[in-house]
Amino acid sequence: MSSDFGKNVKISLFGQSHSKAIGVVLDGLPAGEKIDMEKVLDFMARRRPGGSDYVTQRREADKPVILSGLVEGVTCGAPLAVMIENTDTRSQDYDNLRYVPRPSHADYPAFVKHGGFNDIRGGGHFSGRLTAPLCFAGAVCKQILERRGVSVGVHVASIASIKDSPFDPVNLKKEDLLSAGQKAFPTNDDKAGREMVNQIKAAAKDRDSVGGIVECGAIGLPVGLGAPMFDGVENRLTSAIFGIPAVRGVEFGAGFEAAAMRGSEHNDPYYFEGDKVKSFTNNHGGILGGMTTGMPLIFRVAFKPTSSIGKEQKSVDLIKKEDSKLKIVGRHDPCIVPRAAVVVEAVTAAVLLDWLL
131-147 and 37-45 helices cross at what angle (nearest 10)? Predict the structure, then answer.
């Protein structure tokens, strides 16, 4: 099973949603990097469940236990290994799902792939629970990136039909990039955020769910970072981003809207600002030919509606080999997008640090 990514900084996840613990190993971090654990915990708290009435009420402290790799808070060159205990599991909620796969979950292909021995509790290793250690890894990488002048930030671009104001793709300032991440609900426009919360609560009341889009940006990247063809910045980012559960699509810059443009509209004309080459527009999203251009890196990630809903659904019984119905119980997010935003930020930071090193 492929649960790792990265070339210079290799990140590997382990554990299941209801196992004793989950965790991550970061191999290849430069030695001598001081890690502020308070900032790490603050970053992870943005993903932690149970923080409001519109997310899952599973209560997890998500306190990382450092097993190796830090000496007095400083990286020492050894792999940084971290464990996070699972303390609030309700495995009995999944007893009726062992042989009746949930629609739009990994249950059915996992059952076939692993011969029925897959851990069904909470989704096992396929669960969004594994994004907790992923956020730890991203928090560490963000601190190292910041020392190298690179900042990464996100906001919820949309949920259901409600849209937030986008990042400025040309003149994105650090304070604007990081502002949404400091809020309880990560939008640039607070009014849009309140309307999104209402949409989430309305879906939950109907025992249903909604999806949305996260926009991510990065500034301070040098020109020429990346490679052509199959190992570009977009390639590595997209590969890692699709490791986040529920991701359905990724677009850079103008994205799919570029298909409706003419070349004269989509091309980004260059100009000199002092001795730096910049572009008047940024439809390319900061990447050309797989390489960074020095303009802000801008991309968006689409998340499907949460698959676990309270409505009765049609399925099959894999043992009896007959049609069946199921009703999912337990604690689930009616919309994962607000918590998934910080995961996108974490993965982006990890991939960019891997490139910089």
Answer: 130
Per-residue pLDDT at 36? 98
Which range among 54-58, 78-82, 100-104, 128-132 has the greatest average pLDDT? 78-82
The Cα 41–Cα 237 span in angstroms is: 24
Q: Dihedral, CA atoms, 54, 60, 65, 70, nearest 10 degrees?
A: 10
- State the amino acid at position 132 in one-letter form: A
25 Cβ contact partners less than 8 Å away, ≥ 6 residues apart: 10, 11, 12, 14, 79, 80, 81, 82
Look at the chain and report how many structural domains it folds into: 1
How high is the pLDDT of residue 60? 67
Instruction: Using the predicted structure, report yes or no on whether residue 81 has a pLDDT greater than 80.
Output: yes
Q: Per-residue pLDDT tens for 255-293?
A: 999 999 999 999 999 999 999 999 999 999 999 999 999
Q: Is 136 left (phi over 0), alpha (psi -120 to 50) or beta?
A: alpha
CATH of the domain at 336: 3.60.150.10
Residue 14, C-beta contacts closer than 8 angstroms, at least 6 positions apart: 3, 22, 23, 24, 25
Structural domain boundaries enclosing 32: 4-356
The encoded tokens of residue 125 equal: 């290793």
Q: Shortest CA distance to 347 belongs to which of 141, 138, 143, 150?
A: 138
Strand partners, 25: 12, 81
Structure tokens at 273: 């600002």
Q: Which of 310, 340, 355, 119 is nearest to 211 (CA)?
A: 340
Distances (CA, A) of 81 to 10, 41, 67, 101, 122: 12, 16, 5, 33, 24
Number of Cβ within 10 Å of residue 145's Cβ equals 22
Exposure of 311 in the CB half-sphere (CA atoms within 13 A):
13
Q: What is the model's pTM? A: 0.94
Q: Does pLDDT of 95 surpass 80?
A: no
Strands (E), the chain: 4-5, 10-15, 21-27, 64-68, 70-71, 74-75, 80-85, 151-159, 162-163, 212-219, 247-252, 270-273, 276-279, 287-288, 291-292, 297-303, 313-317, 322-326
Residue reference for tokens 């390319």: 284
The DSSP bridge partners found for residue 278 are 271
